Amino acid sequence: MKVDSKKIDGFLVKLLTRVGENLRSDSIQKMSVATKKNRNDLVTNFDKKTEKFINGEIKQAYPEATIVSEEGYGDLVKDMSGLVFFVDPIDGTMNFVKRGDNFASMIGVYIDGEPLIGAIIDVMDNEIYHGGKEIGLFVNDKKIDDPKNLPLVEGLVDVSAPMALSNRFSVQDVIKKSSGFRVYGSAGIIFGHLLTGKEVMYMSYLAPWDLAAGRVMCEAVGMSVVGIDDAPLNMLKSQVVIVGTQKVVSEALETLKTR
Ligand code: 2AM
Ligand code: CA
Ligand code: CA
Ligand code: CA
User: Fold this and answer.
1) Where is Mg(2+) 2 annotated to bind (predicted)?
2) Taking the model in full, what pTM does it have?
3) Domains of the chain
4) Does any ligand 1 atom lie closer than 6 A to the CB of residue 228?
5) Is the CB of 71 under 6 A from ligand 1?
């Protein structure tokens, strides 16, 4: 299948621009919050409303596409053939509810299983990270250079709170070798930090919509995106993922105790 990646990129930027406007203007008073699996797992009326809006726009522009999304308005996607959109309407819902910043909206697009275009908006900073291998990487209109291939000792690392606190895979050994440890609580915000060289690694258990957009963009700037045992990524299931500079990811894989 042949697709125009530049056109899809333009579509995503326009769409996330509108999502950002809506989320910044929607009155916080009208927020209703519910728990999903546990008290740390929240969903709001804005997560649902935003996903409905994004998925509707995608279906209108790309009726042949299938959609994998978090809040239940997507399709039941069983394989990666054709055009597949991954949608996380609000990434960092806890930050959205508790702080009103450090949350994102993300869309990743794959064609026959291959990463094509990713787009992430840092909603409150109104910055859109977007692009892919073919067209390059941008923050809003500005092209960004590939981040430096720094080693662990020279960079900040981000590990999800549950993984860091439980010391899963002895991840604290990796953290101790770095310049320092951060926990931003939104995969989308952290992908922005990786793409602009502010952090050198992210490790977390990620669902498909957490990973899709960031993977496309990080790979496009030469970063490594791997599973914990260096196994190939499966975009249709949740898994532990390490993203970072090539040097840091190989150091992490050597350091982590995976069995
Ligand atoms: P969310 O806000 O879209 O749910 C918080 O640590 C980060 O991890 C956010 O990006 C959050 O996305 C994601 N996250 C929260 N719970 C998760 C889970 N059970 N599995 C995978 N990702 C999760
Ligand atoms: Ca969620
Ligand atoms: Ca998410
Ligand atoms: Ca979400």
Assistant:
1) 90
2) 0.97
3) 5-143 (3.30.540.10), 152-255 (3.40.190.80)
4) no
5) no
